[in-house]
From TrEMBL:
This is ABC transporter ATP-binding protein. InterPro entries: AAA+_ATPase, ABC_transporter-like_ATP-bd, P-loop_NTPase. Belongs to the ABC transporter superfamily. Residues 7-236 form the ABC transporter domain. PROSITE patterns: ABC_TRANSPORTER_2.
Length: 315
């Protein structure tokens, strides 16, 4: 059975004055998915997250959360989502328990359920031992856990996290990422980030936003496959002069690698594999490896966001 759709975003745009910060963005997320919303600084991630969470009105388009239109039926729509903004709304002078009680009340949980909700959220976020500590005295990593706990205290099906690991040290980053992954078991999660390995480590799907437009929507594996590499890795038993390979049609350059292989850069639509294979047989080069080089996710990201793409290119 297909999991229910938790959020549907249709052609959402947002202007700030004359600046079109988000341009006709559409996507959806189902229960059990962790969707990475990836983009460089200023791409429009926070604006999109604020719109999705009902904190900012779109200039155009529509958002439905758990089947409820966010503008027409804000109460049930907002009850179905939890939101961790880029700047978590923490009160430094409250204890963790006091703050989470307050958040439970804000989310209109019946008084009788608040204590259980607080304890469950603390348990999920690794906060069981710090309920009586002042938030201001906690480490940044623990403060972020409190931020996540407030987002899930009312058990929303959808959780939206805007840059949850920003400003954390490497150990805290690892802990928060594994917490996000755990959240993905019970909730649909939208994770906004500018860090590609974060998406790789945590998400099932990715959407790349650049200058307000989605430039790619794919699975994590699909993202890696998305850009065909325009280079071959070639190994011979008797390596020819690089000039011989460099002279082949479509070849842009040849560079020897430290492990003895050659990296043959070629024009994307002129793969010289067949020519190299037959020449190697003819000239006795002893070809024993020839394979396309796989672009790393970093390369894919850089290529996608540094080239201008028409809107139709969005998957
Ligand atoms: N309140 C605002 N008024 C005017 N322009 C804004 C406002 N908020 C954001 N912008 C602009 O809109 C664009 C998108 O910003 P947004 O914060 O959504 O991007 P982002 O991808 O979240 O980046 P970052 O990670 O740096 O926050 C940027 O050019 C930004 O300067």
């Amino acid at each position: 059975m297909t999991a229910p759709v938790l959020a549907e975003v249709e052609n959402v745009s947002r202007y700030y004055g004359d600046l079109l910060a988000v341009r006709e963005v559409s996507f959806s997320i189902r229960q059990g998915e962790i969707l990475g919303f990836l983009g460089p600084n200023g791409a429009g991630k926070t604006t999109t997250m604020q719109i999705l969470s009902g904190n900012l009105a779109p200039s155009g388009g529509r958002v439905r959360i758990a089947g409820h239109d966010l503008l027409a039926e804000p109460k049930p729509a907002k009850a179905a989502l939890g939101y961790l903004p880029e700047q978590p709304p923490l009160y430094r002078d409250l204890t963790v328990d006091e703050y989470l009680d307050y958040c439970a009340a804000l989310n209109r949980l019946p008084r009788i359920r608040r204590r259980d909700a607080r304890e469950q959220a603390k348990a999920k976020c690794g906060l069981a031992d710090v309920g009586r500590r002042l938030i201001g005295n906690l480490s940044k990593g623990y403060q972020q856990r409190v931020g996540i706990a407030q987002a899930i205290i009312h058990l929303p099906p959808l959780v939206i996290l805007d840059e949850p690991t920003i400003g954390l040290d490497p150990i805290q980053i690892r802990e928060i990422r594994s917490l996000v992954k755990e959240l993905g078991r019970d909730h649909g999660v939208i994770l906004s980030t500018h860090i590609l390995p974060e998406v790789q480590a945590v998400c099932d799907r990715v959407q790349i936003i650049h200058k307000g437009s989605l430039v790619l929507a794919d699975s994590i594996d699909g993202l890696a496959r998305h850009l065909k590499s325009a280079a071959l890795l070639v190994a011979f038993r008797r390596t020819p002069e690089t000039a011989e390979i460099a002279a082949l049609p479509g070849v842009r350059g040849v560079s020897p690698l430290p492990d003895g292989r050659l990296r043959v850069l070629h024009e994307p639509d002129r793969d010289p594999t067949d020519v190299i294979v037959s020449l190697a047989a003819e000239r006795g080069w002893g070809l024993h490896e020839i394979s396309p080089e796989r672009a790393s996710l970093e390369q894919v990201f850089v290529e996608l966001v540094t080239e201008e793409r028409p809107a139709e290119a969005v998957a």
